[in-house]
Target: N-carbamoyl-D-amino-acid hydrolase
Amino acid sequence: MSRILTVGAAQLGPIQRDESRVSAVARMIALMRQAKSHGCDLVVFPEAALTAFFPHWWMEDEDEIDSYFETAMPSNETAPLFEEAAKLGIGFHLGYAELAHEDGRKRRFNTAVLVDKSGKIIGKYRKIHLPGHPDHKPENAFQNLEKRYFETGNLGWPVWRAMDANIGMMICNDRRWPESYRSMGLQDVELIVLGYNTPKHNPPAPQHDRLGNFHNQLVMQAGAYQNATWVVGVAKAGLEAGVDQIGGTCIIAPTGEVVAQAVTEGDELIVALCDMDLGKSYKNSTFNFARHREPQAYGLIVERKGAVAP
Ligand code: CDT
Model:
């Protein structure tokens, strides 16, 4: 008996600075209904899916910064998404900026939740690999201020048993790092879901610009194959608040092959029937970790942060 999870990847086009959360949620509800009509069990939305991607501009006013964050999930504005999910009987993954009060202080994280078919949050992940810089760089066409607006995630990479599958999450820049996938691979992950906001232009290294879509697929295909897991990567795409972002939302099998891919830079749903047992032959052979990994030789990976030349 195969375990088929029908997964929808719900790419969003741009959300402009003046677009309300209510409007963004309405767009996601439309995609969720479309996903249900295609028989989806789970629909995956992008990173920070409720607003324009505000790390692209400099802000100093605390209240203005906080206005992009959620203090509750669900909130008044996002509750309709949870209610619709419960009504339709469909799970979802949603990325958002989280303002928490922990350890006696205000903390900000780039967060995603996994919600089951009853509309209940069953998993939370906080982004670990924050790209960019904490300081203002007015010489750049736009900012990449995740290191200013977010703290490094403090929840690790848990894997949850949900919908008869082992499901994990990462967020955007995490997908470029093999450690993210392996941390979940070591928990027998079968499906990794993630959202991203990836500009076409990379101010510190414009020579990379022509490779944005290639690198997007390269890292997710490698992560899928090397850990024998499905990977679903979902973009917020198109020209948003002056920043042009890649699309390329895709669903990748444990074979490393792309099985579905978006063709626009707007709101677009793609769907795949994902057999959660497809990775088993890899996990039993080439990537039988228990038999073939050699952790005693991997010490540097956790001991050392930056590269040191010989
Ligand atoms: N949101 C996010 O993490 N974006 C980064 C920007 C590019 S840094 C090369 C990303 O990894 O796509």
About this structure: The chain has a mean pLDDT of 98. Residues 72 and 98 are 8 Å apart (CA to CA). The longest helix spans residues 21-37. Residues 4-303 form a domain with the Nitrilase/N-carbamoyl-D-aminoacid amidohydrolase fold (CATH 3.60.110.10).
